Amino acid sequence: MLQALIEADILPDLVVGTSIGAMNGAVIAAGPNEAPERLTTLWEGVAEDDTFSESVVGRLRTLARTRTHIHDDAPLRRLVAKALPVERFDQLAVPFQCVAAAIESASSHWFSEGPLLDAIMASAAVPGLLPPVRIGSSTYYDGGLVHSIPLGRALLLGAEEIFVLQVGRIEAPLRPPESPWDVGLVAFEIARRHRFVEELETVPGDVTTHVLPSGDAIGFDDPRGFRYTNTSGTRERIERAREATAAYLADRR
Q1: What does the alpha-carbon distance between residue 184 and residue 51 come to, in Å, rounded to a whole number?
Q2: Per-residue pLDDT tens for 4-25?
Q3: pTM
Q4: How far apart are CA 144 and CA 124, in angstroms?
Q5: What local confidence, expressed as pLDDT, does residue 223 receive?
Q6: Residue 158: closest CA among 90, 204, 193, 110
Q7: Strands 107-111 and 96-102, how do they pair?
Q8: Which has more pLDDT, 53 or 32?
Q9: What is the pLDDT, as a whole number, of residue 213?
């Protein structure tokens, strides 16, 4: 999606992100033109370094030791740090904010200053998979718990044209569950999507919002959407998203 935007001479004045979007967003804000290559290297690195490759036994050992999560976040932290050419928010080329869920206050917390890496890892701390991140006097979990797609934040910060770079799942409609496994997935997806859907319906008439196509819509019942350990085909998915977004942008010229 980012490649297609750059090819269309569309560059951001502001970037906001949640979870994986916090990682991607920080790299984009550090330098939009260089970001596609940096992000490709980052996500291919996740595959090549086997960031989440622990065996089932290994994950159970981590869970038994920590009692809260099945993966250490150190490998992912190293890859994200390597992808970022700067260390602090005020060193970014474009203003950037990311959100995390503050555990103690059960509220959202927006990071916009100070060290980048801890804020990004807090925003991406998926409960049960990765450890919560302690920053100052608060502890944080994944920002997707409070803002899966932070459209409202972009509006609050004065955005007049918004491009939503999403991972594909919101392109596929939900359907009623047919199994116990489906029940959990449907409930999760409703919780994840509803705020974005409501915010999208209330965008002011003078603001243009583009929900960019991934070229690879993943439904809630498609295991690819939840098989986070499978990072194969990164370049192919990037190219499908570029082609789909380029076609979308061309249709609107």
Answers
A1: 26
A2: 999 999 999 999 999 999 999 9
A3: 0.88
A4: 8
A5: 46
A6: 204
A7: antiparallel
A8: 32
A9: 92
Top-ranked range on mean pLDDT: pick from 67-71, 165-169, 204-208, 223-227:
204-208
> 223 has which bridge partners?
none
Look-up of token digits 């770079």: 165
DSSP secondary structure letter of residue 104: T
Q: How far apart are CA 154 and CA 158, in angstroms?
A: 7
Long-range own/partner contacts, residues 157-163 (CB < 8 A, 24 or more apart)? 157/14, 157/16, 157/97, 158/14, 159/14, 159/207, 160/206, 160/207, 160/208, 161/207, 161/208, 161/209, 161/210, 162/203, 162/207, 162/208, 162/209, 162/210, 163/1, 163/5, 163/10, 163/12, 163/210, 163/212
Residue 249 and residue 192: Cα distance in Å, rounded? 27
Q: For residue 221, what pLDDT is reported?
A: 52
- In the DSSP assignment, the letter for residue 113 is S
- Could you report the per-residue pLDDT of 44-86, keeping only the tens digit for each? 877 666 556 566 657 667 777 777 777 778 888 999 999 999 9
Kindly report the backbone phi and psi dihedral angles of residue 248, in degrees, each rounded to the nearest multiple of 5, phi listed first.
-60, -45
DSSP 39: H
Q: Closest by alpha carbon to 139, among 128, 147, 131, 148?
A: 131
Residue 215: alpha-carbon gap to chain centroid: 17
